[in-house]
Amino acid sequence: MSNRKTTAEKSPPGLLTLVCIAALGAVSMNMFLPSLPSMAKYFSAPSAVMQLTVSVYLAASAVFQLIVGPMSDRYGRRIVMLVCVVVFLLGTLVCMVAANVEIMILGRIIQATSVGGIVLSRAIIRDLYEPSQAASMIAYVTMGMAIGPMISPVFGGVIDEYLGWQANFVLMFIMGIGVLALTYYDLGETNKSEFTSFREQVKQYPELLRSRRFWGYTATAAFCSGTFFAFLGGGPFIATDVLHLSPTQYGFYFAIVPIGYILGNFISGRLSTTWGISRMITIGTLVIVFGLLICIGLLSLGIIHPLAVFGPMFFVGCGNGMTLPNSNAGIVSVRPKLAGTASGLGGSLQIGGGAFISVIAGTLVAAQGSTIILFIVMLVSALLAVCSVLYVIYVDHLIAIGKPT
Predict the structure, then answer these.
(1) Is the CB of residue 117 less than 8 Å from the CB of residue 82?
(2) Is there a domain that residue 1 lies in?
(3) What is the mean pLDDT of residues 23-50?
(4) Cβ of 402: how many Cβ atoms within 10 Å?
């Protein structure tokens, strides 16, 4: 037994392990979404309050990433991931037994530690691969990871209708146990950092924080994520109040988005090494803008149909699938010795920005009762992502011609 443990601690993790630890956060984010309307009825809570289980989760994820990244640089990826999964399991138990919406929100905050899998999978990949290869590997991991958000709302909707919303959290707990076992037996340590103290580690931070490329990649990822998170916040209530979809129907239509994301990941995995990070990000952001313009155009013509809303979101998913792996590869490659810190800080700003945009979108949808306003907010976020990647390209040009940045 001890020999197996030693081997597990030293051997590099397999691709399946990286996919599973990254997918845990995505599943816990998406599985219960079709249950939001029924949970609002159960807790006698307004939809705006119930939406906090999404936006507060995202905000907590942003905070936890600030902790998880530096801790993994200091103590190692393996031990930090194990702690994250254990805490996630405790949060899931809280959600399962929640008697009011306040306890539910508390449980969701604790569950947000699952974001450690997303942070650490990126850092581990950067530990093992160079930037262009890292972009491809991140794309393949997120392509596998995207299966979770693709099928989890479908299962979540069916489970809600037949077993109740609590059953979704029971299934999350079982998944968490599986990920804990996989992490323990297969996630070997990849961090070769030579930091001996937090003081030594912190001395490296200004170099990271002064990097214009780091902030450009981070802004691009944040604004692209904002298009998706805004839809997560406003989509369930548009589906219920405007399109009159059942939870199961919502789950099936929502699957269009991660299908697009998987395609974008596949394109990134195949082309990032040869096309380069910046080109892939630029194309991805323009694909997002294209999809949102189609959606706004259809709604402006008075076409109110599930496919008019979810169909164009295929392009939003595809664009995110092309943009995010490359943006995240750029983030963790700026200062390789601080890959965990960069992944955590970049991911925190990415999810924090997404949470902020989600709150804005949800508030405007609730206040105006308009479907189109959601997609206008998403379009603004996508256009800001285009501006951000153009800024990175500009900085790269200055570096190439030898001008100070």
Answers:
(1) no
(2) no
(3) 82
(4) 6
